[in-house]
Design a protein that fits this description.
This protein is an alpha/beta fold and about 220 residues long.
Length: about 220
């Protein structure tokens, strides 16, 4: 069983049989988790739409809590943490963590737990912007492709990927590359701010239409 809840923006919870993974929660109401379960709080980077100090208060409610943060987020954390960096593998109790380099800041997470493989991109995306220098856009394209290619051969059950309408016609570039190159069962878009309907409209475009059955905008998803 895997219950996915889209909390807000890039914030998600993934509830498994014996644990909960909480990604990039900075606002929005959390589901009520079983306090007997292991809670793994993962933060990809320090941007305020991905990290909030209120994550530390969760330790008051959940005694079996673990914090996994990119090393640049908090210099003096109020709780014991696992500080991670890109291109590393970590084993923590019942989960294995692999990290990729973000094309913006911090890391992306590939998590293996309870025979499930879950990918949270953080701000790893193909940030191709109109009006930016072509050298910057080429770097974005090359770096994104190289990072995603590290996932080739891995069967991913659920992936949380950016679909940001601010990029206009370039918004689907990262998700399209991922879907064409990685074995993934389900993709949940994120980072679309308050433009959910605009983000959903990309499913009708030529790039994403072939994968529409894999892409989910539901608030809750049971897999």
């Amino acid at each position: 069983m895997m219950k996915i809840t889209h909390i807000e923006h890039s914030g998600f919870s993934v509830e498994l049989t014996n644990m909960v993974l909480l990604f990039d929660w900075y606002k929005g109401s959390l589901p009520a988790f079983d306090p007997k379960k292991e809670i793994y709080v993962l933060v990809s980077h320090r941007h305020p739409d991905h990290y909030s100090e209120k994550i530390w208060k969760l330790s008051e409610c959940y005694p079996k809590i673990h914090y996994i943060l990119h090393k640049g987020i908090c210099k003096k954390p109020p709780h014991e943490i696992l500080a991670v960096r890109a291109h590393e593998t970590y084993s923590l109790d019942r989960i294995q963590i692999h990290t990729l380099l973000s094309t913006d800041e911090g890391v992306a997470y590939l998590i293996q737990a309870e025979n499930k493989t879950i990918f949270h991109a953080g701000d790893l995306n193909l940030w191709y912007w109109k009006g930016e220098p072509e050298t910057d856009n080429k770097w974005q394209t090359g770096t994104y492709h190289a990072e995603i290619n590290r996932l080739k051969g891995t069967h991913i059950n659920a992936a949380f990927l950016t679909l940001d309408p601010r990029q206009e016609e370039n918004a689907t570039l990262g998700m399209e590359y991922f879907l064409r190159n990685i074995m993934v069962d389900h993709v949940i878009p994120m980072h679309y701010w308050n433009a959910r309907e605009k983000a959903m409209s990309y499913l009708d475009t030529g790039a994403l239409r072939p994968f529409a059955d894999k892409i989910h905008f539901e608030k809750e998803l049971l897999l």
